[in-house]
Amino acid sequence: MKGKSAGAIVLLVAVALAGACGGRDDDSGPTPVRTATPATTGQAGAGDSFTTALKKIDAPKDLARGRSLGKTDAKVTLAMFEDFTCPHCLEFTAANEGQIIQDYVKTGKILLEFHFLPLSQGSVVPMAAAYCAAEQGGFWPYQQKLFIAQAEANAKTGPALSVAFSADQLAVYATALGMDADKLRACMPADATLQAIEDDARAADTYGFRGTPSFAINGRPLLNGYPASYADWKKLLDSALAGK
């Protein structure tokens, strides 16, 4: 963006984001609609389970356009605001995203949109890499890899996030997925990349989101909690498809 340094954009993004990962104790961020928060992070079993589930997610390449997945004429658009360092985003992705893709995206009913809502400056680095992966047409497998890296870091079966989300390692993921790592590296600090992240953060602020994951259905934000189980997601999405 003209007239603003990349560092200033990152700082603006980080400052606007006073939120914490969804499910915190205060009432300023989204929380799952559940009676208790499951113990998911920091446990090897949970990390292994999440990794297995993430590897099974099948995002069809023919339905992928940048950070969108699905048919453009889908009746319902589900906008997802997430942070790759957030354990609740990991939980949602592992437990629900794959099934939503299978039942609603592949059948042409729902269009998914992934938006960035960074919780800290450290969150911006993997988001920048994911944005640049999208520029090469590889966002969906790349975001899957980033969540796998978080799951392994949480379970201590892989490198800590500071290593897993380092610029060098982010480039390694790109290479493994058949992308141009040099192009990704050059794209990450670009003003256009950081501006896209800031734009998403501003959109989240407009919706009233303060934590992750946060969701909007056809432009209507879910501000009173989001479904914890796939059965509850199905009820919500079916209701939206029915125009309710």
How would you describe this protein?
This protein has 244 residues and is an alpha/beta fold. The chain has 10 helices and 8 strands. It has helices at 6-15, 44-56, 87-105, 121-135, 139-154, 161-164, 167-176, 181-187, 191-207, 230-241, and strands spanning 32-33, 64-65, 68-69, 76-82, 110-116, 214-217, 220-221, 226-227. The strands form 2 sheets. The chain has a 6-stranded mixed sheet with strand order 2-3-5-4-6-7, sandwiched between helices. A two-stranded parallel ribbon has the order 1-8. Helix 2 (44-56) runs parallel beside helix 3 (87-105) and helix 4 (121-135) runs antiparallel to helix 5 (139-154). The longest helix is centred in the middle third of the chain and has 19 residues, at 87-105. It is globular and about 45 Å long.
Give the CA-CA distance, first to last residue: 40 Å
Order of adjacent strands in the largest pleated sheet: 2-3-5-4-6-7
Specify Rg, calculated over alpha carbons.
17 Å
Order of helices and strands: HEHEEEHEHHHHHHEEEH
Number of helices: 10
The dominant shape is: globular
The portion of residues assigned to helices is: 40-55%
How large is the share of residues in beta strands?
5-15%
Please identify the structural class as seen in this structure: alpha/beta
Q: Which stretches are poorly predicted, pLDDT < 50 over at least 5 residues?
A: 1-7, 14-20, 23-44
Strand count, sense and barrel status of the largest sheet are: 6 strands, mixed
Mean pLDDT: 86
